């Protein structure tokens, strides 16, 4: 990206050091603006961060954060700060039933022989023991319908109704839909808008093997962001941790914003609010009055949180040689073998993830841990002989926002009711569900909006991956139908 001429060097304050704020800040610093990134916590990352857990004396991520090949803006942000090589990519996924029977899903590869998308994973799917013949027929039917879902299908019906209309079997619903939707969208199938589910299915299973590859960090998330501070300070900006923004004032005469923190005030030409929806709502009363502010507040009220819990277990021996697995028919959904994924770690560290379950999030600590370990032993019998050395339970009750039918009208664009103040955050209008990719997209969109306002418009948003194989034609047909 070419930098702006020094004469037009403008200053920006980015409030919120999550993925949205970091992506916006780094893109604008690269474009030649002077950027200050302000974060209330003592570390960067927001809802995707790592910290030293006092109970176990280990640095842990607040939860395993998975990305996919289709997350082009998150990958673009990682490339910008030089950490894209910290991501370990895989195209295979093991599903395990209680009792231990395994099914492997992934693209078909026999030497140089590949199958074109959307058929690339068909052989592994057809041979998966986790699904009956009827489940496979039902899933094939639903996938075909989602492949070509047009704008007319963007109904107000939740996914659950759509699945029932498409005669999905209990096996397909419980072992595929609930699991995929809980993992990717962190909500129940009756709370999800059909177009969001279709987007996830197309990107993860149909568009191309590249789009569906799964990425996991080989280092704690904090190390992934370690490059942000030098990136900004090397371009004349900086990062301010432990700095809670309490309000902001606009000066009409100088056309500048002054943000107020307990540590003092800071003035800049532009502000990007890269906060979660509830953080934005908290700040609204401390922004100047503006036409449209009440409408924004009304949009925020329509958003709802969903929880994610993770159970971090250290055993005295290895309980499985798998790097990760999907666990069927139980509360725990995913197993990540962190000692294998994050190779710098010693010990035998397993992380379990429970998504979209308010009931599990409400359990007392001891009961939640007991249930998770008991369930884990049903998939990996070695757990019964192993000694559990230490354990941490992390409950994130405000992990993600939901995407029920009609939510798009409550996701604001980056241009805000205030002059020279832009909105970012995973919940803004990116078309993506609550993910790091949505956060990175929102950051890049807000950065583009700042550049447009300066009169130096430029492309910052990374392009989507193009569908491959037969999906190219289906994609073209779909975009023609939506015009
Ligand atoms: C447990 C869990 C598991 C998840 N798993 C995945 C996954 O596997 N894959 C995936 O893609 N996504 C996952 N997500 C979702 C993903 O983490 C979020 O969508 C994304 O990180 C949101 O980024 P953000 O920058 O929009 O918001 P945030 O991360 O919330 O960042 C906002 C920042 O603003 C700061 N802030 C708030 N108020 C102020 C203030 N007044 N002044 C200064 N700073 C302030 C906050 O401290 C925070 O750092 C998961 C989330 C959780 C919680």
Concise description?
The protein is α+β, with helices and mostly antiparallel strands. It has helices at residues 19-30, 72-80, 122-126, 133-147, 159-165, 170-185, 194-206, 221-224, 228-233, 277-283, 293-301, 338-341, 358-361, 365-379, 382-385, 436-454, 471-482, and strands at 11-15, 34-38, 50-53, 58-61, 66-68, 87-90, 93-96, 102-105, 109-110, 113-114, 214-217, 238-240, 245-251, 256-261, 264-268, 270-274, 305-315, 324-327, 334-337, 348-355, 388-401, 421-424. Helix 1 runs parallel beside helix 16 (436-454) and helix 6 (170-185) packs across helix 7 (194-206).
What does this structure look like?
Helices cover 33% and strands 23% of the residues. The model has no long low-confidence stretch (mean pLDDT 94). The two termini are 31 Å apart. With 483 residues, the protein is α+β, with helices and mostly antiparallel strands. A hairpin with a 2-residue loop joins β9 and β10 (113-114). α1 (19-30) runs parallel beside α16 (436-454) and α4 (133-147) packs across α6. It is globular and about 70 Å long. The longest helix has 19 residues, at 436-454. The protein has helices at 19-30, 72-80, 122-126, 133-147, 159-165, 170-185, 194-206, 221-224, 228-233, 277-283, 293-301, 338-341, 358-361, 365-379, 382-385, 436-454, 471-482, and strands at residues 11-15, 34-38, 50-53, 58-61, 66-68, 87-90, 93-96, 102-105, 109-110, 113-114, 214-217, 238-240, 245-251, 256-261, 264-268, 270-274, 305-315, 324-327, 334-337, 348-355, 388-401, 421-424. Bound molecules: flavin-adenine dinucleotide.
């Amino acid at each position: 990206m070419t930098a702006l001429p020094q004469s037009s060097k403008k200053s920006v304050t980015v409030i919120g050091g999550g993925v949205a704020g970091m992506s916006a800040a780094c893109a604008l610093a690269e474009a030649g603006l002077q950027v200050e990134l302000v974060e209330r916590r003592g570390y960067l990352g927001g809802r995707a961060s790592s910290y030293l857990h006092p109970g176990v004396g280990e640095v842990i991520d607040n939860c395993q954060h998975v990305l996919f090949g289709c997350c082009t803006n998150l990958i673009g942000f990682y490339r910008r700060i030089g950490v894209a090589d910290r991501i370990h990519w895989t195209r295979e996924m093991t599903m395990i039933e209680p009792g231990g029977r395994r099914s492997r899903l992934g693209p078909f590869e026999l030497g140089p022989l590949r199958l074109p998308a959307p058929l690339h994973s068909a052989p592994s799917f057809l041979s998966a023991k986790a699904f009956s013949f009827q489940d496979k027929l039902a899933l094939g039917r639903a996938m075909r319908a989602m492949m070509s879902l047009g704008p007319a299908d963007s109904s107000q019906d939740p996914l659950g109704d759509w699945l029932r209309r498409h005669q999905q079997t209990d096996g397909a619903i419980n072992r595929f839909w609930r699991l995929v939707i809980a993992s990717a969208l962190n909500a129940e199938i009756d709370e999800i808008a059909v177009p969001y589910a279709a987007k996830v299915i197309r990107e993860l299973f149909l568009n191309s093997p590249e789009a569906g590859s799964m990425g996991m960090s080989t280092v704690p998330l904090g190390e992934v962001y370690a490059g942000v501070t030098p990136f900004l300070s090397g371009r004349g900006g900086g990062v301010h941790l432990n700095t809670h923004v309490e309000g902001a004032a606009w000066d009409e005469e100088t056309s500048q914003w002054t943000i107020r923190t307990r540590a003092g005030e800071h003035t800049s030409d532009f502000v990007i609010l890269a906060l979660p929806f509830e953080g934005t709502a908290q700040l609204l009363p401390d922004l100047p009055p503006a036409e449209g502010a009440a409408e924004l507040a009304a949009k925020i009220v329509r958003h709802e949180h969903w929880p994610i819990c993770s159970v971090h277990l250290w055993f005295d021996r290895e309980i499985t040689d798998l790097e990760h697995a999907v666990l069927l028919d139980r509360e725990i959904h995913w197993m990540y073998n962190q000692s294998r994924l994050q190779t710098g770690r010693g010990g035998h560290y397993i992380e379990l993830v429970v998504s979209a379950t308010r009931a599990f999030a409400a359990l007392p600590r001891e009961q939640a841990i007991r249930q998770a370990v008991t369930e884990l032993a049903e998939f990996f019998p070695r757990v019964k002989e192993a000694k559990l050395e230490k354990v941490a339970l992390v409950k994130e009750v405000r992990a993600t926002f939901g995407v029920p039918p009609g939510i798009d009208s409550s996701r604001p664009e980056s241009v805000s009711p205030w002059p020279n103040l832009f909105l970012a955050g995973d919940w803004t209008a990116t078309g993506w569900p609550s993910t790091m990719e949505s956060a990175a997209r929102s950051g890049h969109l807000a950065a583009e909006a700042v550049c447009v306002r300066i009169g130096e418009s430029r492309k910052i948003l990374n392009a989507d991956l193009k569908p491959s194989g037969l999906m190219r034609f289906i994609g073209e047909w779909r975009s023609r139908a939506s015009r």
